[in-house]
Amino acid sequence: MNSEKLSPRLAKVCEFLVHYQKDAIRLADIGSDHAYLPCHLALNKQLEFAIAGEVVEGPFQSAKAEVATRGLTEVIDVRKGDGLAVITETDQINAITICGMGGSLIRNILDENKAIIRENTVLVLQPNMASYQLRKWLNQNGFVFLNETVVEDHHREYEIMVVQKNSHHKQILTVNELQFGKYNLENPTVAFYQKWQKELSLLETTYQSIVEKAGTDHPKAQLMQEEINQIKEVLN
Hints:
Layout: H1 8-20, E1 26-30, H2 36-43, E2 49-54, H3 57-69, E3 76-80, E4 95-101, H4 103-112, E5 122-127, H5 131-140, E6 143-153, E7 156-165, H6 175-180, H7 182-186, H8 190-214, H9 219-235
Parallel strand pairs: 1-2, 1-4, 2-3, 4-5
Antiparallel strand pairs: 5-7, 6-7
GO molecular function: tRNA (adenine(22)-N1)-methyltransferase activity
Pfam families: TrmK
Keywords: Methyltransferase, Transferase
């Protein structure tokens, strides 16, 4: 993978971003690593301005080197800082990407500096886990889901969600929509079924282990049985 040819995961993030942010994109890519995503957009003339944010020195230097090598220092500003703290009001950021982190960490990053997120900003988020916790926070904090999908990348399944800051509209989501994703349920991909079949197999194995030791009446076993039934209902 490089700035010219992204992984399937990051390619889908870019596709969503370009599709849903109709204005000239002013992006903050948080946890940018090598800055491949903003560099790719800039090389394809799909970007007005970007911040490549990194908190760790190694990836920060890698991002600076990639941007300089590609001749994109006038378009992409590589900044070292924690989460959304790299953004200022004068940047006029209207798009944010956060990829490859746990859902709880993404939630915390957004929550710590949510005041900097302007109305109508489009966020494309790719949590590696804890998607339910992230969806719940987004739903409770003025964000509306525009789309979601699950893609396969190197034999792993990744959830990608697109939301927009909209304080004037409250989106009502069911328990299943918070767990699996409203648009994933409406238009499931093959990777979606693969992901949840793996989750189901893992839960069933753990459930059997608990039952053998503590019986079916154990609170953990009962809770796990509910989760298993919920997944089976969606898969079937």
